[in-house]
Write a structure and sequence with these properties.
The structure holds two protein chains of two kinds. By secondary structure, chain A is of the alpha/beta class. Chain A contains eleven helices and twelve strands. In chain A, the strands form two sheets. Chain A has an eight-stranded mixed sheet with strand order 6-7-8-3-9-10-12-11, with helices on both faces. A four-stranded antiparallel sheet of chain A has the order 2-1-4-5. In chain A, helix 3 packs parallel to helix 5. Chain A is globular and about 70 Å long. Chain A starts with 5 loop residues before the first strand and ends in a 25-residue tail after the last strand. Chain B is α/β, with parallel strands linked by helices. Chain B has two domains: about 190 residues, 3-Layer(aba) Sandwich (Rossmann fold); about 80 residues. In chain B, helix 4 crosses helix 5 and helix 5 packs across helix 7. Chain B starts with a strand and ends in a 7-residue tail after the last strand. The chains are: A alpha/beta, B alpha/beta.
């Protein structure tokens, strides 16, 4: 764990979305278990990548941090205080310190507002930079993200996708936030615009000592930006590691498969590396598998223990955590219904 | 070297709008041989999809194929009647589109969708078509295929839907499969399953594949040869290893440098400055010249030819890299 104190602490976070039943459906109430008990920290000034495939709960986690949805249970603490029980004033301050960059720069900018008013909007709501100072700030932000100060009166349609994403970043920076949540910030952009936005995020992070949570399915993007990576699968964390460790010393079989599946434009790498092709599809989060949630597709399945016992996230090497029975310390590592049986004896 | 299956020669497809002409495809030439997987790569607006729709003669209005030749097993597709084209589509040349949910008719079951082509083109009975549909679903790796035949498209996951699309495309044993960005909407572990499936099917059935993508990583994983497009023109083409390892066109090189690469996070990305040209107002000469680090006045003076230096590698550049 980094030496700096955690800015954001996520503890046993759970979000279940209840599924509405039809009139004739008399079955038990069911819920999509989008996030099912996850804990991690983000230190001040750190960039953490949250990766996983569709339905793993990564975006839901980010949205709970943004207070866009309420957790079913568990706690999120920002600067030591739980964000669940804030007073009106504290909540206002929290929303000022925590900002978001959206996935789709086409639908996230109001087409009827000039980009100047889009960037000025958060300041208006928070009564920041009153009067002429606001226009000065808007122009300053435009130049900061690599646009021209004269473009404040333009409308979003006059910009390309990459430039729109710059506007989105400028709006997120308007209130000098401490923390920014980036939800797939480059997935809708072309290669050249993608590189510009990634570089811009890197630059503003350094300049303002920002703490960033970046959610993406693109592991090369995560490697480029993050200090640490949290890998999720079906609502659970399967691995947490420093970025270099995660790619060089991958522990969890799911992460291994994920890393090996990323297409990389280097034919030599493609030829040499181990190619893991997982069987089957991602199971439904309505009815996740028992034990380890990955056991139905795992290439390293070691026996009944995988099916019956949910592996605990534990430190395998300093700062490197994995939730997998391969790394279980017999006798101590098991939790859940099969905890009485030592993991090593089950085959 | 296997015989040529598809030869596209100097293809021009333009869209005639009220007050301007959008030149989406501007003199594109490439070849797909039997049993070969050819990738067409480039950024959005490069003309990749329009080039492929032109091959199928499915360019929507107001688009028109202005010029060029498209030879499929030696026959010129541009000279065929609409009726002859309909015989060809789905039977000898078939296409998989980017968005499977919008391409699969929601009113029919998977079995009916696959069976339609079999009944229409192969003259099978309904019962035979149903049986063959089940086999096709098994071929594309769908578990429990007989049960899936009764499902509707919306009941399947994205990966399954894309497999159904591929099953439909393969139903009449096509000689050529054209796939337009078919894995962009899928997760990487599902994408690699589909890529692996296409390679296996190519090996087993010997079909040619034309695979459109904006992801050079997919090109490296899947393709034998690659065609790099920009602003409606081919910038460079050749075998995948050579083009990605030693790009000769500055655009190809820039495209590769702009991508984050696994294992090398410390290297700062090099974005391509500027924007692609407006296809309604293309610059004279090389369309990449305004953004090119090697551009000299002669680049913009007149059209730059695509030069083939004999080893299957062709580059459209006056000052190519070595």
């Amino acid at each position: 764990m980094p030496a700096q104190p955690a800015l954001m602490e996520v503890r046993n976070l759970v979000k279940h979305f209840p599924v509405r039943r039809g009139i004739f459906d008399r079955g038990p109430a069911r819920a999509v278990r989008a996030v099912d008990g996850i804990s991690f920290d983000i230190a001040g000034g750190e960039t953490v990548g949250l990766v996983g495939e569709s339905g793993c709960g990564k975006t839901t986690t980010g949205r709970m941090i943004m207070k866009l949805i309420t957790p079913t249970s568990g706690d999120i603490r920002f600067e030591g205080a739980s964000i669940g029980g804030l007073s009106f004033e504290q909540e206002r301050a929290y929303r000022r310190s925590v900002q978001m960059v959206f996935q789709d720069p086409y639908s996230s900018l109001n087409p009827r507002m000039t980009v100047g008013s889009i960037i000025g909007y958060p300041m208006r709501i928070q009564n920041a930079y009153p009067g002429a100072a606001r226009d000065v700030r808007i122009r300053e932000l435009l130049e900061l993200v690599g646009l021209s100060r004269f473009q404040a009166s333009w409308y979003p349609h006059e910009f390309s996708g990459g430039e729109r994403q710059r506007v989105g970043i400028a709006a997120a920076l308007a209130l000098n936030p401490k923390f920014i949540f980036c939800d797939e910030p480059v997935s809708s952009l072309d290669v050249s615009a993608q590189a510009q936005i990634l570089n811009l995020l890197k630059d503003v992070r350094r300049e303002f000592n920002l703490t960033i949570l970046i959610v993406t399915h693109n592991l090369s993007v995560v490697e480029y930006l993050s200090d640490r990576v949290v890998v999720m699968y079906l609502g659970k964390i399967v691995e947490i590691a420093g970025t270099a460790d995660l790619y060089r010393e991958t522990l969890h079989p799911y992460t291994k498969a994920l890393v090996s599946a990323i297409p990389t434009p280097d034919p030599d790498v493609e030829r040499e590396r181990e190619q893991i092709i997982l069987r089957g599809e991602i199971p439904s989060p309505l009815d996740p598998p028992t034990g380890c949630r990955f056991h139905t597709r795992c290439q390293s399945y070691i026996g009944d223990v995988c099916r019956d016992v949910e592996p605990r996230l534990q430190q395998v090497r300093p700062g490197h955590f994995a939730a997998c029975h391969l790394y279980a310390d017999p006798g101590t590592a098991t939790t859940g219904p099969g905890a009485a049986r030592p993991a090593g004896q089950l085959v | 070297m296997a015989e040529a299956l598809l030869e596209v020669d100097d293809l021009h497809t333009h869209f005639h709008l009220k007050n301007k002409v959008v030149r989406a495809v501007n003199g594109v030439s490439f070849t797909v041989r039997r049993g070969e997987i050819v990738g067409i790569a480039g950024e959005s607006g490069a003309g990749k999809s329009v080039a492929c729709l032109s091959i199928m003669r499915l360019v929507p209005n107001p688009g028109r194929i202005e010029r060029g030749r498209i030879l499929f097993t030696g026959e010129d597709l541009l000279g065929k009647t609409e009726r002859q084209m309909r015989e060809l589509r789905g039977q000898t040349v078939s296409m998989v589109f980017e968005d499977p949910l919008n391409s699969l008719d929601p009113a029919f079951t998977v079995g009916a969708l696959i069976g339609e082509a079999l009944i229409l083109h192969k003259g099978l009975s309904k019962r035979e078509a149903w049986k063959k549909s089940g086999e096709l679903l098994r071929l594309v790796g769908i578990p429990d295929p007989e049960r899936r035949l009764d499902n509707y498209a919306h009941e399947l996951s994205g990966g399954m839907q894309q497999r159904v699309m591929i099953a439909i495309a393969l139903s009449c044993d096509p000689a050529l499969l054209i796939a337009d960005n078919p894995t962009t909407a899928l997760d990487v572990t599902i994408q690699i399953q589909i890529l692996d499936l296409v390679k296996q099917l190519r090996d087993r059935l010997g079909m040619g594949v034309l695979w459109i993508t904006h992801d050079l990583g997919v090109v490296a994983k899947l393709c034998d040869r690659v065609v790099i497009m920009y602003a409606g023109e081919v910038m460079e083409q050749g075998d995948v290893y050579g083009v990605l390892k030693r790009p000769r066109h500055p655009y190809t090189r820039r495209l590769i440098d702009a991508l984050p690469k696994l294992g090398r996070p410390e290297r700062r990305l090099m974005p391509i400055e500027g924007r692609p040209p407006d296809p309604a107002h293309l610059p004279s000469g090389c369309p990449f010249a305004p953004r090119c680090y090697k551009a000299r006045p002669e680049c913009e003076a007149h059209d730059v030819p695509l030069v083939d230096n004999g080893d299957g590698r062709a580059v459209r550049c006056l000052f190519p890299e070595d």
